[in-house]
Fold:
Amino acid sequence: MKSSIERLAALRAIMRTQSIGGFLVPRSDEHLGEYVPPSAERLAWLTGFTGSAGMAIVLADRAAVFTDGRYTLQLEQQTDGNAFERRHLVEEPPAQWLVEAAPGVRIGYDPMLMSADAVARFAEAGSTMVALAANPLDAAWVDRPAPPMAPAVPHEVRYAGKDSADKRSDVAATLRAARQDAAVITDPASIAWLLNIRGGDVDFTPFALGFLLLRDDGSASLFMEPAKVGETVRRWLGNDVSVQSRTGLAAALAGLRDKRVRVDEAGSPAWFGQQLRDAGATVVDAADPCAGPKARK
Structure:
């Protein structure tokens, strides 16, 4: 097993090829979740720290790992002090630490792992932020586990309380009332609620990980590896919900030119807003449209 120092060296070598002087490694995955599958344990792979809240910042000549007061002792026990400075997430905000440690340096980040709001905090503090097309840590992590492939399963209406088509119709009405053509939904809990499906991609949480594009007519595109969505679930979803590989996301967003698309910029990866704006869509920053309805009991 490589040491943290060796892993840092491998990461820095790839960073140099991307012309960046720093890189952010958040705890979150592509759904900005607190609990992540093994393939998304990037912070743990790099630093050894397995707490549920944290971030690492890697510069050319120094690196720091941040967490809050719950994990102070764990951080000391799990990380190598020769490789990482240990910092308090609240008392020393990473954005402020970074601009003082590396003024004027190009700082790379994976836009699938950070929200637009999170990126803005670093930019507003004075850092030069660079969205990367490829995550350098993923390239350094040569034995990274495969993404989870647990099958999605139906969640019966007797437990869900309402048919998925009715839920989609209700949320679509909300979009029409706000003059929004579509909504991007990235929260696995919202997708589970809206489509009445469950899965096993994350330990102790019944999520089938994927992304959803909901249109104002109630139809939807589910971006989830097709092998996870068997015939039983496809029939359960119905003809108004198409299933595509995640590789089709960029093309689907590019097709929304001149459309008004709702995105929760605080709770979704920054990548979605960036892709939509590049495509010529109007991004409407608003809360996940499922958040309110799924909270009602």
Summary: The longest strand covers residues 22-26. The two ends are 48 Å apart (CA to CA). The domain at 4-140 is CATH 3.40.350.10 (Creatine Amidinohydrolase; Chain A, domain 1). DSSP finds 13 helices and 14 strands in the chain.
